Amino acid sequence: MTARRNVLFIMCDQLRFDYLGVYGHPHIKTPNIDRLAARGVRFTNAYVQSPICGPSRMSAYTGRYMRSHGSNWNGIPLRVGEPTLGDHLREIGVRNVLVGKTHMAPDREGMARLGIPADSVIGVLQSECGFEPYERDDGLHPDGRYDPAPRYDGYLREQGFAAANPWEHWANSAEGDDGELLSGWLLAHADKPARVPDEHSETPYMTRRAMDFIREAEEDGRPWCLHLSYIKPHWPYIVPAPYHDMYGPEHVIPVQRADGERDDPHPVYKAFQDERVSKAFSRDGVRERVLPAYMGLITQIDDQLGILFRFLEERGLADDTLIVFTADHGDYLGDHWLGEKQLFHDVSVKVPLIVVDPGSAADPTRGTVSDALVELVDLAPTFLSYFGGVPKPHILEGRSLLPLLHGQDSGPWRTAAFSEYDYAIDRARLALGTPVPDSRLYMVADGRWKLVFAEGFRPMLFDLQADPLELRDLGADPAFADQRQRLTEELFAWTRRARSRITRADEAIAAGDDAGRAYDRTFGQGIVIGYWDEAEADAERDKIRRYHAGG
Amino acid sequence: MTARRNVLFIMCDQLRFDYLGVYGHPHIKTPNIDRLAARGVRFTNAYVQSPICGPSRMSAYTGRYMRSHGSNWNGIPLRVGEPTLGDHLREIGVRNVLVGKTHMAPDREGMARLGIPADSVIGVLQSECGFEPYERDDGLHPDGRYDPAPRYDGYLREQGFAAANPWEHWANSAEGDDGELLSGWLLAHADKPARVPDEHSETPYMTRRAMDFIREAEEDGRPWCLHLSYIKPHWPYIVPAPYHDMYGPEHVIPVQRADGERDDPHPVYKAFQDERVSKAFSRDGVRERVLPAYMGLITQIDDQLGILFRFLEERGLADDTLIVFTADHGDYLGDHWLGEKQLFHDVSVKVPLIVVDPGSAADPTRGTVSDALVELVDLAPTFLSYFGGVPKPHILEGRSLLPLLHGQDSGPWRTAAFSEYDYAIDRARLALGTPVPDSRLYMVADGRWKLVFAEGFRPMLFDLQADPLELRDLGADPAFADQRQRLTEELFAWTRRARSRITRADEAIAAGDDAGRAYDRTFGQGIVIGYWDEAEADAERDKIRRYHAGG
Question: Given A67, A430, A455, which is nearest B517 (Cβ)?
């Protein structure tokens, strides 16, 4: 590397692509993110590799599709030894550091089988998806589950917010008129302020922790990739003042749904429509109560990013730091008669993605918008390439975005984006009676058409040009059989491209091509196959001698 | 386990399915293997998962297809942590022991990344594909490559066979009339006896080592799975007296090839026809010189198996030991104008498979022949099941053969057998100009039809009923488009069944189904999604109480 280089990799959780000012939301205020977009490239077709936290993040952190990394759902351990961005960056002297959420579940059985102590340096890296955990906090600490003692809870206690579970009872609860605790988990309370003031809530806390790391890293001197990973605007939908009433029902945009979507829907879609959360968000008044809190959480993030970006500028880091702003998936919020995520409508599977490359090579693209089909598996190869690492296409299944950022004509980017979902753990599987291994969905989106391949069922199909809100499923319409066939073939080709030969690089295999053309390399290693007699063997030895003599 | 149980897993290397008496060869003498078949089930449609040593063996030893284990060619390391038969057996107290060849290449980079010392117990298991290496010997020790000091070389030296490389210069060489060394690598010398007498050659040596282990294991007391893995009848095609002239040109069966196969062949097939070894075996006189040695090597194995089986009987082990006899792939030997293996004609991709289950449950099938489509990935689940282990379909991609061995109607076995080949390391890739990651072939065989899907090229297709010798490629014939389509869809379905979620069993996922039907399990863990107010939450709490009260 010739110059100091860092990466700030910001991820929000459950942030829809369309809930930012720069992405066209008519009411939400996100001036700092909007300004970030003006400094870099804003992608309008960025897809996550699974529309749920864990698998989506494992894809982002490994640069590999779910079908390859195998961590199919939240809490499914990432197999020990699965190569991560951290592994690739450490090889070239770059620290890969975490502040916030990863949703990583360690493969404790695999680690035990390989004799890796969980508290060793390697054990920690294996448990933290390759990140150096400056502050690991998955952002969900309900009573009775998850890590019971996040550092943030200790922080709240130090600030005087005493409780058995400060996260739940202070940061994610409100108070009634008589001082009674009102759980932030309940949608009815989304319009009330959280019990903690803004400065002590999670987003400002994590932002300060990121700045703590950056300060320390300056003394350390090594280049870094910092993953600042906010839990918000993920539920519980509750936010401190003044964000709790910054937006009101008048700022809630119309729901994106059609009655026809409930008329003979695809069986898997129907099963998700029947989930409690979908029914809740489909009821009158729920969106009006919840969405202002969701929007407040987003503006709170934006305000904190303003502080963080000024901090970078003041320390002279803005010119050295590639910044990514993105999310792990969206949120239906009642659109399509659904809540949560899990399916493949754009509001769930598409995310905001803004990338600022500070180098002069990126000047031609500053402030531009790209509709290239990009995927979050592209981030790891982008970072590796930014730090000067050798590409690893035999492991990393995405592509470096640097050519796009540098305005280079890199040929056709990709013909389709892919995403997967395993609903084996959802109630949908019980409703459908699907076998566990067959509870699988795949999305193939080419920019205009989007196919959802459902194992054991007919596919779904949307024409995003004629029907940008994806309200008409053409999956059973005979008129579109050709499109379904074409996209299914794309999916088949994609399944064949899974990279499992991760222990040998393509380049290593091709390294001997010149010699292989000139003589029998196997023979050169003493393995003599297909030679009749000494004369034939001697002739081959001559070839080898001539090759090495440069003949 | 109620009774002592062991497994003797015998594998030959490069043994064609049709070069055994019981499989119909008109001249070869294999009375002991024939008698083994009379005691068990002989499979006539057993396919390897890649027609080359390394990947085929990695599939047999992991129970996983190549697309999953990723060790695509000889010498490509098996990624650290890839679960093996040995891992599964050790969990239930069974030793998994090796005598002979595995072709395992350890993932030294991966082991270093995980801090696993190569000389630790875990490091050795990771380096030996999960086997306890009682005697590891890959059977090829040419000058200048491979492990330079096999124990067998030391043995030969002790017997007075002094040389820098006793394996090459004694066990795999002959002598000329004037005492000069004649390399066993050269096909012209295949009719001469090896310089070592029979008793000191590799097959008897390895057989004795297997018996050494079995004796020691009796004192140890733990059940064992012993992999006795002969390098023979793999080249170098040279065998000691009296086997070197036991067969002559009169015992060489007619070559299986047609002129039409050289008339506009499939490009990949053509590239392999153009390999040196293919041309060598296509020349007049080569088969007549080489095949008698190949057959002698097989009869030598059979004689040794006679000794081994008597040994088991004398020690009372025959009634406790499940015996498998098979091979890692076949050998073209000039059929189809090819040498070596690598492609998917039956003589390459189909292997002998005889399984003797000593238990009374298998009595109904003794001496029978099964045409079920079986694959070598079925062996690991068979052994696991035999020892009473819990099936692991989320890891093991094959199926236990026990239902077939017990004559149970287990429903449709499988609709097609699959095999893969990665020719990135072959000269064929250079000839074809194929990109490294696209140099892939897949076989789908349903018992009658066989499709070879070639990335970037048209497929090949054979009708084994009309054309059992596979001399007519129907891959470009419009009349068979339907069959090609059908088998291609089978391949697509198979690619979607890759088991990558190896850290969580299907059963573990389904374990909470009852509770999941009765109440919201996520809610039970403190995660409250889609609840409007306290009343809704209380109602769900009631459901949980009722469920746990058995209501």
Answer: A430
